[in-house]
Amino acid sequence: MQASTANAKMVTKLMFRLLPVQILLAAVGAVNGIVSSFFASNFVGVDAMSAVGLYGPLQLLLQAVSVTLTGGSVILCGRYMGRNDQSKLQGTFSLTVTLAVLVSLAFSLLFAIMGLFGLTGFFTRDRAVQPLFGRYLLGQAIGVTPLLLGNVLTSFLSMENQGRRATIASLVYIGVNVALNFLLVQVLRLEAFGLALASSLGLWAFLLVVGGYYIAGKSHLHFSVKRLPWGESGALLRIGFPGAANSGYQTARGLILNWLITAYVGSVGISALAAANNLLGIFWSIPAAMLVVSRMLISVSVGEEDRQTLTDVMRVMFRRFLPLMFAVSLGLILLAVPLTRLFYRDPAEPVYAMTVWGLRILPLCMPLSLICTHFVCYGQASGKQGLVHTLSLLDGVVCVVGFTALLIPALGMNSVYIANVLNGMVPPFIVLGYAWRKNRGLPRTMDELMVVPRGFGAPKEARLDLTIAGMEEAVAVSRQVQAFCLGRGVDPRRAYLSGLSLEEMAVNVVQHGFARDTKRHTVDVRVVHAAEDVILRIKDDCVPFDPAERQRLAEGEDVTRNVGIRMVFRMAKDVKYQNILGLNVLTIRI
């Protein structure tokens, strides 16, 4: 099997293994929206649904803050993991947690003041909706801290391959949210305040489960006030902001659209849009989760300067993720009527038809969004800030608002839905035009479409990529590595030691890692000749195994045991191990 093909298969397998947990995590907020909308429309009324819809731009603002913190920290930490810089990794974790708490407290105070003193006239002039929205803000203020802090900690859980705990936390949140909505809204009749309070208390339950992993000291990452690198704040925010700018732009977009809808359609249009968005929100968790998985792999690939994995991630997006999202979108379009009946049952009401059309048109945005978000993410990680800001501005506000303003006088509420689809068609042309300009011609490969710098990673002539699928290939790898090193002018002794070291570690993985379960495994090997060193990188998807820990434990054992590991540690200049997203990554420098 060719190394490039094997690497692509490993990347695809890893991305789909991580995807289900990320979908569930991304769906948490959407479930909250559906539950709130269901209880609002069935037990409080259309005005309460308007309050939920009016909160949408503020929710997007919080999402922008969350994406800034999580996106910036994941990309930074991915780089540090790729370089195996543990000190900076731990410091970035502590800094991100601290920033999440400080920012969330500021937002909680702002929401509480707006709700207590009725400072909501900026959002709506409807006197029936204003007090409901104020009480809704009060309830939401209680949940800002667990929302931001929970998102941050969950992103690090994913990097530590602790998807199971994140899944449990999500299920706990959903259960608590539903139960409290029934109690506070249907039984105690707390109306809009009860809707928001149920969500907030559910988020605290979510945080308790997620935070327990760190409080118990089980995590690789540990919070420390002494490790707060405040100087990294600028880099974290600078890296995270462009990706979050899209959510920030959407906040402005939401405010403008609410004004346009109120002026041309009325509050009933806001209720219909809120219902459609909340219903679709749970399905929007799929492309959101796809982006989270890709972001983690892209950031680590940039840190490792692994061109092959970097481009493979984007290939998986085009070849696997995109067709999957088109299928999901088609299913939603076919189910538009029964989904609408969850909230509105009378076809004679204007809000009913508006919601049905929203569910027939808006799903088309989902597959289109994947292209934009993935290239924004790649632009963040690789420093292409001009492309990132252009895509975020156009996709976030300019296109949707512009198309809506042009179409709404003639098409009414449907203009909002159509504008979103037209908006999704713009970013692919921007990406293609950017690549065309940089390459001075139509891009023909994924490298050219992504405009990966020529100097990124080791050049082909300075690296050797191999894939090991069994013992025969593991034993033969020594000769291949030795021949590569000699061909690069490496002295015979180091060439021999490089081949021998790699063979010993590869055989160890095949003997012990492959036999631990019935799954098919491969070992991805990369040999790089850089300056005066030969760098051996071994990556596998077997159970976690740290050779350094095994070597330390073997110090007092029979000298005839673990001979291979002992020998490698004696010969190598440096040996580093880490488990990245469930993959064992061993780097040996000869």
Explain briefly what this protein structure is:
By secondary structure, the protein is an alpha+beta fold. It has helices at residues 3-44, 46-54, 56-83, 86-116, 130-141, 144-159, 163-187, 191-215, 233-264, 267-304, 307-334, 336-340, 350-361, 365-382, 385-411, 414-439, 446-450, 471-487, 492-513, 547-553, 563-571; strands at 463-468, 523-530, 533-540, 574-580, 583-589.
SSE arrangement:
Elements: H1 3-44, H2 46-54, H3 56-83, H4 86-116, H5 130-141, H6 144-159, H7 163-187, H8 191-215, H9 233-264, H10 267-304, H11 307-334, H12 336-340, H13 350-361, H14 365-382, H15 385-411, H16 414-439, H17 446-450, E1 463-468, H18 471-487, H19 492-513, E2 523-530, E3 533-540, H20 547-553, H21 563-571, E4 574-580, E5 583-589
Antiparallel strand pairs: 1-2, 2-3, 3-5, 4-5
Helix pairs in contact: 1-2, 1-7, 1-8, 1-10, 1-11, 2-5, 2-10, 3-4, 3-6, 3-9, 3-10, 4-5, 4-6, 5-8, 6-8, 7-8, 9-14, 9-15, 10-11, 10-13, 10-14, 11-14, 13-16, 14-15, 14-16, 15-16, 18-19, 19-21
Proportion in β-strands: 5-15%
The helix/strand series, from N terminus to C terminus, equals HHHHHHHHHHHHHHHHHEHHEEHHEE
Say how many strands there are. 5
Morphology: elongated
Low-pLDDT residue spans? none
Mean pLDDT: 84
Q: Profile the largest sheet.
A: 5 strands, antiparallel
Q: How many domain units? A: 2
Helix share bin: over 70%
Q: What structural category characterises the helix and strand content? A: alpha+beta
Strand order of the largest sheet: 1-2-3-5-4
| N-C termini distance | 27 Å
Tally of helical segments: 21
Supply Rg. 26 Å
